[in-house]
Amino acid sequence: MKRRSLLLQFTVLLLAGCGGPSAVTQDIPRAKQGASPGAAATPSTVALAGNAFITSAPSGATEIINSNGLANWTSPTTITSAWFRVNAAGNVTVAMDAKLAGSASSTVRATVNGTPFTVNLAGAASKTYPIGTVNVAQPGYVRVDLQGVSKSGGYFGDVSALKVTTAATLNYANDAANYYWSRRGPSVHLGYTAPANTEYFYNEVTVPAGQDKTGSYYMANGFGQGYFGIQVKSPSERWILFSVWDADNGAKTTLVKKGAGVVDNAFGGEGTGGQSYLVYNWAAGATYRFITRARPDGAGSTDYSAWFYAPELATWRFIATWKRPATSTYLTGVHSFLENFIDTNGYLERSAQYGNQWARSTSGTWTELTTARFTGDATATNGQRMDYAGGLQNGRFYLRNGGFFSPYVPVNQSFTRPATGVAPAVDVNTLPQ
Length: 433
What we know:
By secondary structure, this protein is mainly beta. The chain has two domains: 276 residues, Jelly Rolls, CATH 2.60.120; 123 residues, Galactose-binding domain-like (Jelly Rolls, Sandwich), CATH 2.60.120.260. The chain has four helices and 30 strands. The strands form five sheets. It has a nine-stranded antiparallel sheet. Strands 14, 18, 21, 22, 23, 25, 26, 28 and 29 form a nine-stranded antiparallel sheet that branches. The two termini are 27 Å apart.
């Protein structure tokens, strides 16, 4: 997960929660301003490298999106889709920057929000080819699909960008250094305020049917030093994942013990630490329960433990206990998040509901947490992607991202769910070890 951006978001969350003059206000996403009425419109360049995906392709397809855009375009059944967002209804004129390699000419179909246009390409030099104009009925994302029709040689062409002309303000990924992150899509978070000396945190997560896309991480129980939740690793494998970062001074987190069938190893890439996971075929539509515990060991380290309850098993499963050195704390910064970790799947929508959050103190008192602060990462706050939402749904909090949906829900606001008033029916002293 995006550790640096997440830590920044929860620093912002704590500041915003203080209110008054120091409170953080809503970030205004950066946008490309359209032409004013009556002015000559200047086309905006929407690079496919940061805004397009291969959304349909046959087995063995060669098409890719690379730093130059769409390349290796050979199959007439492959569909490449690009998106940009307009903030107002009105006419939108689209063209594309393309060149031919391996063919003297080709014909392609460009479909803009469902309206098809035929585009004829010719010559090896890069040119801007007009596509057409559509009327967009309301603010939101505009989708452009590209599909080959015919070609004189082996390739339909290389497409680097769309050229978009409109009076509306546009949002699209324009930070080339961070196209990987914009293609992954915005990560969104829920931050809860737990009492001091919280030893246990309890949460429940439901992934609606059809929202369990490959590459999704539905993180239930995050805290200042790690996180715990469920993932879709591939079409055939799902994980229950519990990870704890190494200490701030670089000292390594070590495994104390783990549950049956749990795999443990070190992780890297976005921070380093200890990772433990159980391969488990959890199901969309079911509600899963999560408990994390933090307990200082009295010798300068803290032990972090995690348990997972599956309704189909009707029992708690112990995942692992990790010891983090140079740390002496109970649970702080408790939160949940939703993210996509496969950039080529960043066009797929996912969502989850998070409900019935409770914190248990060292004295054994349960406190219900009914308020959550909704935040997003830099991909969201910088306007690189605006397909994100969060809030209340069926009495629970929810998070949603990906899929280029509209409208979005602004980040940096708090939501309060109805209290259940019923503490978790679990005896933490008898949880399996």
